[in-house]
C-alpha cells in the first residue's frame, strides 16, 4: 500500500521547499513578524493563504469550529483560541485581526439542530455562536444571515479583551469581519457604516469591526463614523 501522505511530505521537501528555502531561513534567523491574526473556521474549504495571497510568515492563524471567540473571562475553561489572541496581540503585536466565517458552515447549521450526546464539548463550544441564531426555519438565506451575524458577534466579543479594545480604540489594531462565500470565491466584508456585509468587489475597505471605523494599516483613520 503506498502511503500517500508520506509521498506528499517527500514531495514538499524535494520539490517545493527549495524555492522557499531562503525565505524560511530568514524567518528563522529574524523570527516571525506576522501583522495579521487570522481567526477562521476549521472548514477545509476555507483556505486563508489562497484568499489573501499570503505567504510564509504573514498570517498568525487560529482555526476552530465556527471561527468563534471564547469570552475573555476564562469561563469557557482552557482555551487555545484565547491564548493565541493574547499572544498575537501582546507578543507579536499584530496590526489586524480578521474573523472569517463562511457559507455552508457546519457549525452554524449544527446550532439549529441537535448535537450528539457524544460531543458535549462541541455542544458547549457552539454556545459561543447561539446568540446569532434567528427564530426561523434554517433555510439557505437564514443560514447565511446567521453565519454573518455570528462573525459580528465574535468581533464584539473580541472587543471585550482589554488588550484588543485599547489597541482598536487607539488605532493600533484594526478589526475585519469576513464572510467567505465558497461557491463564488468572494469574501463579503463587514461594514460598520451600514451594519451589513459587502462583497469585496464592491467595498472600499477590507472590513471593519463593530464599533470602529476602518483604520489604515499605519493607524491613520480613513473613515469617520
Ligand atoms: Zn465553518
From TrEMBL:
Q: Which residues cross the membrane?
A: none
Q: Into which EC class is this enzyme placed?
A: lyase
Return one Gene Ontology term, BP aspect: carbon utilization
Region annotation Disordered: where it falls in the sequence: 198-218
- The protein's name: Carbonic anhydrase
Its biological purpose is as follows: Reversible hydration of carbon dioxide.
Q: Per the record's keyword annotation, is 4Fe-4S included, yes or no?
A: no
**One MF term from GO for this chain?**
zinc ion binding
What organism is recorded for this protein?
Acidovorax delafieldii
Recorded hits in InterPro entries, A to Z, give:
Beta_CA_cladeB, Carbonic_anhydrase, Carbonic_anhydrase_CS, Carbonic_anhydrase_sf
Amino acid at each position: 500500500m503506498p502511503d500517500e501522505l508520506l509521498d506528499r511530505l517527500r514531495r514538499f521537501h524535494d520539490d517545493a521547499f527549495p524555492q522557499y528555502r531562503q525565505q524560511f531561513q530568514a524567518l528563522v534567523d529574524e523570527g516571525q513578524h506576522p501583522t495579521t491574526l487570522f481567526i477562521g473556521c476549521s472548514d477545509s474549504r476555507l483556505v486563508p493563504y489562497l484568499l489573501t495571497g499570503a505567504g510564509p510568515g504573514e498570517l498568525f492563524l487560529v482555526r476552530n469550529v465556527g471561527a468563534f471567540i471564547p469570552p475573555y473571562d476564562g469561563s469557557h475553561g482552557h482555551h487555545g483560541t484565547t491564548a493565541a489572541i493574547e499572544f498575537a496581540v501582546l507578543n507579536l503585536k499584530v496590526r489586524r485581526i480578521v474573523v472569517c466565517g463562511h457559507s455552508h458552515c457546519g457549525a452554524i447549521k449544527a446550532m439549529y439542530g441537535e448535537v450528539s450526546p457524544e460531543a458535549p464539548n462541541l455542544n458547549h463550544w457552539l454556545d459561543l455562536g447561539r446568540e446569532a441564531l434567528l427564530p426561523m426555519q434554517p433555510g439557505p438565506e437564514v443560514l447565511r444571515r446567521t453565519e454573518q451575524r455570528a462573525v459580528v458577534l465574535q468581533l464584539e466579543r473580541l472587543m471585550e479583551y482589554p488588550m484588543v479594545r485599547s489597541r482598536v480604540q487607539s488605532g493600533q489594531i484594526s478589526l475585519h469581519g469576513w464572510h467567505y462565500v465558497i461557491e463564488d470565491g468572494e469574501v463579503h466584508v463587514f461594514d460598520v457604516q451600514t451594519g451589513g456585509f459587502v462583497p469585496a468587489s464592491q467595498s472600499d475597505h477590507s472590513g471593519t469591526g463593530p464599533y470602529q471605523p476602518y483604520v489604515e494599516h499605519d493607524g491613520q483613520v480613513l473613515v469617520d463614523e
